[in-house]
Fold:
Amino acid sequence: MHGVDLHTHSNISDGTLSPEQLVHAAIEKGIHTLALTDHDTMDGLSLAQQSAQGTDLRIISGVEISSQWARPATQKSYGVHIVALNMQNPEPMLILLEQQKHIRAIRAKQICDLLMPLIGQDIYAEVIAKVDGIADRITRTHIAKTLVEKKIVSRAQQAFDKYIKEGKKAYVKFDGLALAETIEVIHASGGYAVLAHPTKYDLSATNIRYLIEIFAQFGGDAVELPPAMEPASSRQMVDRMIAEHGLKVSVGSDFHGDHMPWIRLGNIPRLKEGQVGIWESFK
Ligand code: AMP
Ligand code: MN
Ligand code: MN
Ligand code: MN
Structure:
């Protein structure tokens, strides 16, 4: 599995490398199977495929979908990221993404409007300039970066902690497609549904276990292995849930270029004995 990276971002969403630069970086790293998984968009795919033409690098179609899941007991809804991989017939996915892009564009403006009284200025023009004027590509990372550039905060993390993460005054929930329907659309597109970074949500261990169980019940295919730097106890818990529900595993770095320089392209955890990589199912 060395040479596989199934979770990466380009500057079509909140990465800093263009799809072409990402492909060249992947080739330099010795990666042979790369999925470009930008947030709620597949607009970078054809650029990546063109750049990889004539090389040994295989590009897997992908997208990271902002989905949501509600615990039946409390009806509280949680944002979850579902990575869709290897779609053979992307039409249903492209229709869903039109809706997701619309939500993303409106939400970016809402976040900037909520920020205005808090920071005393309107940063929307600077934010949208970061995505070449294409509002449906704006992520909270772009908003956080703008707040750093304007010296309103000193680091991007501070922008989340002070203003734009859940519970803060300029937080706007991403009202994306529900988990079951997200998995359905991925399957209708001939792809595989992967639960991204299961330990990165603000969920208790009990809720993570429950999320993985529900994901499996809804027909989800694989769970992304947490990176090696995560505590062993969390990683073992995820390993147990994967085994218990007969799920496959996916591996991806969640590379974002210079926006998150501590994440290296192609840096993925090892599989435990008995785990089966979802990429073995790719046609
Ligand atoms: P969005 O899809 O617009 O909500 O933006 C998601 C991006 O924001 C992800 O790629 C994360 O890397 C980043 N992000 C989300 N939550 C946080 C957080 N609490 N701290 C730092 N970065 C975050
Ligand atoms: Mn991101
Ligand atoms: Mn994510
Ligand atoms: Mn990601």
